[in-house]
């Protein structure tokens, strides 16, 4: 039987000790991490970039199919993704947890294992947080701090007419992963004796849902190439919605090409099996955490061979209107269903 | 009848718009507030200080006697208090909310009214956050950012032998306020027809519980006097616990004097009526949010006339042991019951 230690045996100070031991400070800018009223950070002459997310059990995640370790990883990755979307380098995070007594010490350790794995991956220091009881489900609040020179910070409201529209990675996979997991959960709920069976040929879409990556590799490659995008946003609410954000905020329009939208084969296959339109999944599925950015035409030569980056269209002066050129030659308006959490 | 608008009628974007309108940016260092993937802040060559708190309904607050506007105020004040305890100046906060559908648009507006009042009081900009649904109670996560020159930042582990121990304000009032409110709630629960009656002569202790103040005035006065404390901490878990933190972290001891511990008359009276020891309330009651700090002996002349600051003892070489000199002349050990939230 799996070991289960009640949180009460560890206590708040025991938990802080556990975290302290697991998370040594690595960045020289982190002058003080956990252990005082606040963390102290040397900004080294750069601008500070701050992003925060609140994740609540039953709303943002379902522990019945999301391994708690991956949840820890994902919580950090999605915040780092926001820092990446500003073209900044993440350096520190704070993690606050509300823990219900359903959660054992072992589960909390697993959660921090995942957080630690993401901290290592993205080279960020955990510098603070708050842990407390929660009467209901698990609550995770993460704030990420990043830094960049002022002239390297990229906003979403600065795309210009004729800029090239680029994306990293591919789209729709995270939604197809979620649909697959939800379906398995329904099978399991209907017949608890039947263990969820996840086909090997769904591994990619499921990993994209459970363990998304912040595209820091793209941020670093852009630096190496000497390219500062004219605008950038991370794709958390679907490619269509984020493109519309850039257009609306920048006062421009865009045309993207249907046949340029990157969609993985497994996303196609899963969508087809689940009676989803792959293109709808790509445009409106959330949680891809890829980067959508625009660059000047004169930077085309520099970016055309970037790793895992696709050119999907261009910016127009057709104010705040985004269109997709279909394979058929028709131009259709891009819309995004309001992504409402209430 | 009071107006009640369901949150769903406002939506996430409506809520963001509401916040945006209510919270203009005031600090020139805040380059970008709400509206992009992350906020952008100019650290102006100073060190960054970061503190975060997670407040969960049913654990940290009880909406049955805590007006939601004051809850908003308090949530900000307690984070600013952590920044004050580092001898830094608060500049920005992020506020994330998990909202159950029990909460109306009007209640959310009240909450933000209180947050706004505290932002105005402490001159901080609200620069970001996250709002989402919550299956259970209200969840508030606040991160505060402050700045200070490196040489002005004060830690809790740097008290030195012979330093003078000082406190701002008075102690035990917040606990007595909580006890009063809890008692009124029990009366109300026993007989819902009986409206809670809060005596005028409990106004101070109740205000100390519901609307604590971060002692930025002390931080500013210390700057005016040219004094940098040798150590500092804010008193959230009781004076005894925080003094022990300073001793343990600094590897020193302390002696404080019973007759120097500041306790308000109303705290005394309330404690007596509720069969509490006023001194126990002062030493072990939480949520006073006063500052406990140490200064060098040579700074005595500078600090002796500070507004609302008391000298209560001195630091000894009696490693990690804190004692209180009683009026009787006896020296007793100071202890603090573990403040466990699990």
Automatic annotation (TrEMBL), chains A, B:
Q: Can you tell me which residues bind Mg(2+) 4?
A: 37, 51, 82
User: In this record, what's one Pfam family?
Assistant: AIRS
Residues engaged in binding Mg(2+) 2: 53, 82
The UniProt entry, under CDD domains, shows: ThiL
Query: Which positions fall inside the PurM-like N-terminal domain?
Result: 35-147
Q: Which UniProt keywords apply?
A: ATP-binding, Kinase, Magnesium, Metal-binding, Nucleotide-binding, Thiamine biosynthesis, Transferase
Pathway(s) the chain acts in: Cofactor biosynthesis; thiamine diphosphate biosynthesis; thiamine diphosphate from thiamine phosphate: step 1/1
Q: Which reaction does it catalyse?
A: thiamine phosphate + ATP = thiamine diphosphate + ADP
Q: Which residues bind ATP?
A: 112, 129-130, 156, 236
Which residues make up the binding site for Mg(2+) 1?
52-53, 130
Class in the EC hierarchy, top level: transferase
Annotated EC: 2.7.4.16
Coiled-coil parts of chain: none
Any one biological process term the GO annotation gives: thiamine diphosphate biosynthetic process
Q: Where is the PurM-like C-terminal domain?
A: 208-318
Q: Report the InterPro entries cross-referenced here.
A: PurM-like_C_dom (IPR010918), PurM-like_C_sf (IPR036676), PurM-like_N (IPR016188), PurM-like_N_sf (IPR036921), ThiL-like (IPR006283)
Summarize where substrate binds, as residue positions: 60, 287, 339
What is a single molecular function from GO for this protein? Answer: magnesium ion binding
Q: Where does Mg(2+) 3 bind?
A: 37, 82, 234
What HAMAP family does the database record attribute to this sequence?
Answer: TMP_kinase
Q: Which family does it belong to?
A: Belongs to the thiamine-monophosphate kinase family.
**NCBIfam families linked:** thiL (TIGR01379)
What does this gene product do? Catalyzes the ATP-dependent phosphorylation of thiamine-monophosphate (TMP) to form thiamine-pyrophosphate (TPP), the active form of vitamin B1.
Matching PANTHER family, A to Z?
THIAMINE-MONOPHOSPHATE KINASE (PTHR30270)
The molecule here is called Thiamine-monophosphate kinase
Give the species this sequence originates from.
Arcicella aurantiaca
